Amino acid sequence: MTSEEIFDQLVPIITLYLPDDVSPDEIQLKSDLTGELNINSAHLVDIVLDVEDTFSIVFANEDMEQLHTVQDAITIIQKKITTK
Amino acid sequence: MQNKPRVVVTGLGVISPNGIGISNFTKSLFTGVSGVQFYQTLKDLHFSCQVGGVPFISEEKKLEYFTPLQLRNFNSNGILYGVLAGMEAIQNAGIVPPEKEEDPLWDLGIVFGVATSGVDKFRESIYQLDEGNVRRLGSTAVAQTMASGVSAYLSGMIGAGNSVTTNSAACATGTEAILLGYERIVAGKAKQMLCGSTGEDGPYIWGGFDAMKVTTYKHNDTPREASRPMSETASGFVPGSGAGALLLESLESAEARGATIYAEVLGGAVNSGGQRGEGSMTAPNSKAVIACIKAALQDANITGKEIDYINGHLTATTKDALEVENWCKALDRSGTDFPYINSLKGMVGHCLAASGSIEAVSTILQMQHDFVFPNVNCNDIHPEITNLIAASRIPRVKIDTKIQIAAKASFGFGDVNACVIFKKN
């Protein structure tokens, strides 16, 4: 799966967790999920669960620590898919 | 206590099995509309009592106050009812929540009571956890199952900056919440308090009561006739659920902002029978009940003669006659001299932790609209009750009359009591 394909599937997942004043257009590869998109840090675990369901993968605690930006998510997902 | 600050009610909200919102609920009170229905789920689970009072909340109604994100994996109907009732009271009072970047409302607090919170969510979590999937619980399992969940959800929506808390006193919870808020305003520690209580529903809440055989098994085919407070054929209570909310405010604050005043809280009292004498975990100590009502009168600085109307606890168990006897002794009134008395439970069942607040809302609506709602399913008044008070004091049809002063009491497991006195504005 290409980065672009993963990104397209990530946007609707992330959108659900955006605060009212952040537009989905602001979701970019380099966007920091909590720092820039202002997603409540408690919701990161929910995003990960949604990502796991969408891509049929499982995040380890160490993966969670690496997750800051949208690009981080794509990198982790790609690694998980190829090693599956 | 001469200079005790006066406290008034400036907002009301309700989610009742027979009415969602104040307007629908008021209409149901006029004619005695029942909210009790048969539930197949209870039959399938072999419940003795297969009827209950459950408010129906549409998806549109949920989205009035909750975001789609908040509703994701949301499975706590007590928080749902409490938030809807609490938000109605806030809007009804004309309070505008601050924007996210603004300061909270430092003088507005919340005391919203529960008996349990998020039992359905907790059950869901237990199943996931026992299968080794603790990581799948998501981020809201705590917020939905903590006792203060309802206060916390409400606080986020209204920006309350004063004390935000939750009380729990079994079936006296709702009435106690009103008094806790009242006392905080009287103490000068808050200007506005959102007071209320919420009660969840479903088999996991009601099962324990079914096992105790305190609910009725005789009306599974006739649900609207099941809840029969003060009736000779009362055979146990009908479980119910929902939430009631009152915005209490200092008179000074209410007048300063030109708020509509529905009633004044003259005072009240809470106590416990200590499970001594005839009192136990499940039965009231009458001495304490009488003392609580008398203390409420004293706190309100009125006499028993001044009470025009009693909104009873009256659950439709064998204890109804004893409750009436206790009122007679506390007020020193009987026969035709007794105030009007009714029980909302004939229409909606016993909403447990929510009962006190929903019934307090019904009390204030009767004062506001000058009527006493009918005692539903009470055409055969128990003779032990007519030995104490005249049948004319137990209206079976709506009566149009002015209520100047009303007493609302609730009694709960653990032998706890609460009584609040309202005055018509």
From TrEMBL, chain A:
<protein>
    <submittedName>
        <fullName>Acyl carrier protein</fullName>
    </submittedName>
</protein>
<feature type="domain" description="Carrier">
    <location>
        <begin position="1"/>
        <end position="81"/>
    </location>
</feature>
<dbReference type="InterPro" id="IPR036736">
    <property type="entry name" value="ACP-like_sf"/>
</dbReference>
<dbReference type="InterPro" id="IPR009081">
    <property type="entry name" value="PP-bd_ACP"/>
</dbReference>
Automatic annotation (TrEMBL), chain B:
<comment type="subunit">
    <text>Homodimer.</text>
</comment>
<dbReference type="GO" id="GO:0004315">
    <property type="term" value="F:3-oxoacyl-[acyl-carrier-protein] synthase activity"/>
</dbReference>
<dbReference type="Pfam" id="PF00109">
    <property type="entry name" value="ketoacyl-synt"/>
</dbReference>
<keyword id="KW-0963">Cytoplasm</keyword>
<dbReference type="InterPro" id="IPR020841">
    <property type="entry name" value="PKS_Beta-ketoAc_synthase_dom"/>
</dbReference>
<dbReference type="InterPro" id="IPR000794">
    <property type="entry name" value="Beta-ketoacyl_synthase"/>
</dbReference>
<keyword id="KW-0012">Acyltransferase</keyword>
<dbReference type="GO" id="GO:0006633">
    <property type="term" value="P:fatty acid biosynthetic process"/>
</dbReference>
<keyword id="KW-0808">Transferase</keyword>
<dbReference type="InterPro" id="IPR016039">
    <property type="entry name" value="Thiolase-like"/>
</dbReference>
<dbReference type="InterPro" id="IPR014030">
    <property type="entry name" value="Ketoacyl_synth_N"/>
</dbReference>
<dbReference type="GO" id="GO:0005829">
    <property type="term" value="C:cytosol"/>
</dbReference>
<protein>
    <recommendedName>
        <fullName>3-oxoacyl-[acyl-carrier-protein] synthase 1</fullName>
        <ecNumber>2.3.1.41</ecNumber>
    </recommendedName>
</protein>
<comment type="similarity">
    <text>Belongs to the thiolase-like superfamily. Beta-ketoacyl-ACP synthases family.</text>
</comment>
<dbReference type="InterPro" id="IPR014031">
    <property type="entry name" value="Ketoacyl_synth_C"/>
</dbReference>
<feature type="domain" description="Ketosynthase family 3 (KS3)">
    <location>
        <begin position="4"/>
        <end position="424"/>
    </location>
</feature>
<dbReference type="Pfam" id="PF02801">
    <property type="entry name" value="Ketoacyl-synt_C"/>
</dbReference>
